[in-house]
Amino acid sequence: MDWDWVEETALDIGGSFTFARGASPEQIMTAFGMNPAKALLVPASDVAQALHDPDWLRTEPPAHPWIRVGVAGEWGFALDESTAGYGGYEDDAVAALAASTEVVLFTHTQTINDFRYCVDGTMVTSFEPMRGSDRYGTEPD
After folding, report:
1. Residue 110: left (phi > 0), alpha (psi -120 to 50), or beta?
2. CA–CA distances in Å: residue 43 to residues 50, 55, 100
3. pLDDT tens digits along 36-77
4. How confident is the model at residue 27 (pLDDT cuts 50, 70, 90)?
5. Burial class of residue 119 (count of CB atoms within 10 Å of its CB; 0-12, 13-18, 19+)
6. Is 52 left (phi over 0), alpha (psi -120 to 50) or beta?
7. Could you give phi then psi for residue 11, rounded to 5 degrees?
8. Are 125 and 117 within 8 A, CB to CB?
9. Beta-bridge mates of residue 136
10. At 9, phi and psi to the nearest 5?
């Protein structure tokens, strides 16, 4: 999969990446509290406009932040660039997905980053990359 499109996102401000082994885009949307049947499919060429121009939708902006979902190899993923970092709902999505598989969550803000790896509902490791000596989880190293 070509990841060049990530450079065109607003991740320089902040956002989050969630990866779940074997998860489909529909499973990821459901874990984030979204209804896949009501998902608005936006072509990559229109994403920047859709994110920054609510009138593009011709309706109310969505109540839940925008996420991009897809599959890369055997990992399903969600990219949320709309919260400028941590939106708070990622924990519920990770818990829902991690109940039966491996999940990686990386959040990025202008001041702090966070990495988490969970397997079958258990936090294996969690740390801030610039403070790698402060690790948490059942197998922090």
Report:
1. alpha
2. 10, 16, 31
3. 888 777 666 666 666 666 565 555 545 556 778 888 899 999
4. very high
5. middle
6. alpha
7. -65, -15
8. yes
9. 126
10. -90, 180
Distances (CA, A) of 68 to 24, 26, 33, 112, 134: 12, 11, 14, 22, 31
28 forms beta bridges with none
DSSP string, 44-104: GGGHHHHHH-GGGGTSPPPSSPP-EEEEETTEEEEEE-SSSS--S-HHHHHHHHHTSSEEE
CA distances, 86 to each of 35, 89, 114, 115 (Å)? 21, 8, 9, 12
Query: Is 67 in contact with 79 (CB distance < 8 Å)?
Result: yes
Q: Between the CA of residue 97 and those of 23, 90, 130, what are the distances in Å?
A: 8, 10, 26
Tokens read off for 140: 């922090």
- How far apart, in whole angstroms, are the C-alpha atoms of residue 70 and residue 3? 11
| Other Cβ atoms closer than 10 A to 64 | 15
CA distance 121 to 55: 40
